[in-house]
Amino acid sequence: MLRRFRLEEPExxxxxxxxxxxxxxSAKIYAGGTELLLAMKEGLIxxxxxxxxxxxxxxxxxxxxxxxxxxxALCTHHQLEDSPVLKEKLPALLKLEQNVANVRVRQAGTxxxxxxxxxPHADPGTLLIALGAKMVAAKASSKREVAAExxxxxxxxxxxxxxxxxxxxxxxSPGPNGRSAYLKFGYLERPSVGVAVAFNLNxxxxxxxxxxxxxxxxxxxxxxxxxxxxxxxxxxxxxxIAEAGAIAGKAxxxxxxxxxxxxxxxxxxxxxxxxxxxxxxx
Length: 282
Fold this sequence. Notes:
By secondary structure, the chain is an alpha+beta fold. The chain contains twelve helices and 14 strands. The strands form four sheets. It has a five-stranded antiparallel β-sheet. A four-stranded antiparallel β-sheet has the order 11-12-13-14, sandwiched between helices.
């Protein structure tokens, strides 16, 4: 059973920020609660106050503005898996959302909550890094953008300051030659390895971005693997994809656990990178 806590229900981002600043580490934002409440029930973490942000309905919309897709942090996975905007602009993210966890989690869980909880075996962060997403972190008097690869710092740790609130995830809209894909593998409830790619294909590969996740404490971008494929023709890139996969496997910071050994996960990263690249090409 949950221990007793106080529930705060602010109606603006400024109020949320003020509460976070006032109560510090004894308070936590509550959105979908699919991760947070489970951890609290297990006694792994405990907070004196939960700050319910569900009244901030303006953070639950998806729209296109200024050449990017703006996703409110309170959008549920279910909302995103049916989003016509994602279907048109970011089909790889749409497909990812359709395969997050299970139906119950997708109905209640939010994209912002998933990112802020920073569970190592979560899906969205890896693809968002490859897509070049930026997180908008706001407080009472200011806001800033943080690149996805800098937002997810470690297991259960983000770069949010104590009184900051994640409000929006901004993802650049791909051009007509944009390609992207995310693949995951696992035999337990959560994925053991996830790999994402995003690039442009117009005679050759350009703007290559590769990210790996779920294998280690946090998803990571892999510039060294990207450099092997950047500027290459489709055929040349396919010829180097195995080498890029080996580099990405080492960069994943894979940890031996119930999901598999370090060596096993590094191998799977290489397999998934090749398949993800081929999938994006098609």
